[in-house]
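Handout, section 3.2

Students often ask what a structure token actually looks like in practice. Rather than define it abstractly, here is a full record for Xanthine dehydrogenase family protein molybdopterin-binding subunit. The first block is the sequence as you would receive it.
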Amino acid sequence: MTDEAATAQAVRAAEAAPEPEPLPHGLGVSLPAADARAKTEGTFPYAADLWAEGLLWAAVLRSPHPHARIVSIDTTHAREMPGVRAVVTHEDVPGDPLHGRGTADRPVFASEVVRHHGEPIAAVAADHPDTARMAAAAVIVEYEVLDPVTDPEQAFEAEPLHPDGNLIRHIPLRHGDPDAAGDVVVEGLYRIGRQDPAPIGAEAGLAVPRPDGGVELYLASTDPHGDRDTAAAAFGLAPDRVKVVVTGVPGATADREDRGFQLPLGLLALRTGCPVKLAATREESFLGHAHRHPTLLRYRHHADAEGRLVKVEAQILLDAGAYADTSSEALAAAVAFACGPYVVPNAFIEGWAVRTNNPPSGHVRGEGAMQVCAAYEAQMDKLAKKLGVDPAELRLRNVMATGDVLPTGQTVTCPAPVAELLEAVRDFPLPPLPKDTPEDEWLLPGGPEGAGEPGAVRRGVGYGLGMVHMLGAEGADEVSTATVRVQDGVATVLCAAVESGQGFSTLARQIVQETLGVDEVHVVPVDTDQPPAGPGCRGRHTWVSGGAVERAAKMVRTQLLQPLAHKFGMSTELLQITDGKITSYDGVLSTTVTEAMDGKELWATAQCRPHPTEPLDASGQGDAFVGMAFCAIRAVVDVDIELGSVRVVELAVAQDVGRVLNPAQLAARIEAGVTQGLGAALTENLRTPRGLVRHPDLTGYALPTALDAPDIHIVKLVEERDVVAPFGAKAVSAVPVVTSPAAIASAVRAATGRPVNRLPIRPQAAVVTAGG
């Protein structure tokens, strides 16, 4: 066949072929992640991969002691080493020497006292990373070692560890009748360990000095404007002379960046006049960033003879570590949700957050709520056992619903389908039991080659009900700004909401596609030249940033439709955009978006700010939260009662999501949250004997792997839209983290009959002795 004939045949085949189906777009479909291709091809721009001409390398000297007085710092030897370009200490900080997320109480470099293991003392810039590390080690620090305060209960009586004292916050919540009492009373003491966010990529960054005397910071930041303002204050510069450019974020389940990491980086760049790069080791990552608050909880539940809750009394003590960070906010959540998603007419909760010489604690998914969930669900199991009532039935007798009142006095106005969620997981079919003969292959606790015997394995079924708040609380001003621009059939979204794995970039594309009927949507990379959008946590960007994008897109839609509506003598509400076509209600008008644009550029900027909240008052009362989300999980576990090893067989999840915006993305977020909770329940505990971080690496800190992940079944998603939220959607990733540890512990209790009052669950807690 000649080339001409082949071409003609191809043309005829193309003409005869049916039109390809348009790709799905808009809200409610599983649009692929915006960065999926770059990540799979290895072109995603992580901070650790950045390079600049004349690059220097940085290293940080960190304290080997959890508590010590600094007698002297000698940098002479480090400065004299060949290849070293600069050494900075507390004396070289030109601006504010203190920083912090919630409270500015943490020094850029320790000057007089070291308050935790790994606190920065000095930083070095050199022409090779090995030289920088050797120079940092050559800084001579003379310490007077002090006894660390590592027990948060001792912090009340100990000498002040900080000029601000050891007590960060105390919340005495009072709700109802203090003399109320129930027919049945159960008590418990619970301990929650220190979970590390363990980001898949350790902290890294690049600082580049600017000709105007400022500096640009290239970071995997989740709060670029907050990081910029902190850096500018430390550098003694105006905020407009510091620019933060967000690089690819390798996952974030907490505040991604340790600000104590990026401040030395910028100082070295300003001092040397050269680009400086710092890539933290895994050990430095563990020492530097914030962890989940270790928590001590004492509970007493009162119930009537039918199992209905009468009163809950609790004491909650959060170990904030050396600095305040976001401990005040975590304590507010812990106290407010101390009774869980249950109707409790009388509640008396005492909550404290205190400083110790342990590593700093801060924001990790579900902070405060996760710790109390493990405790109040253990109490519900104890109550069910004492009353001889099925644990699920006891919970159903007490669950809250829309219109009920929290112990803070706030009415739950958002959808709260807690009973529906619990019934869904309770009624979901249980997994089949394993074979009871050793010849048949089945997974034993401890892995495929588990050392136990099948005869020692007991199966347990447990339940967890959890709740979290969305957005900031107690008067936090939640606001985000977005700009949407459309030209030549292409839309561009400008919003400083960082894509940290939660899917905001994909959601922004879907919103614009849904509103304007434009297939091609680009989201501009984030930097601080854009208006602020706030930090990426507690579902903020789905709500406030997604809301801002929607409002801006609707404003552009109005600009697009108004000329057509005026021409045909109708209102814009009578026109609709579907699959890139504009049609009127009566069919008179039918045109494409591209034709209606006629080469014009349309754009609009909008803000989204939810309704205001208020701080909790002196008795823990107040409308402190914008909205809440709920989850129910049923856990099925196999426990080897001789070895104490636990295998989670299945987790059935039902969740209140408001509206499903991207089904695949939502499922992935729930599964990831459940798995993070699995780690908190069974393996993850950063050990800090006498304040020293033990085994700060991924061999000593046991993250759950794919082999540890159980079957996760999302059995129900309740789509009852929250009328005050854009699109009616709720945050989805934090509440399964909160709930799954409690459900797993409940199942282990059911299998063993043991109390299980500590997370992660230690093997000895699951061992049943001959008489047990």
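Discussion prompt for tutorial groups: DSSP finds 16 helices and 29 strands in the chain. How would you have guessed this from the sequence alone?
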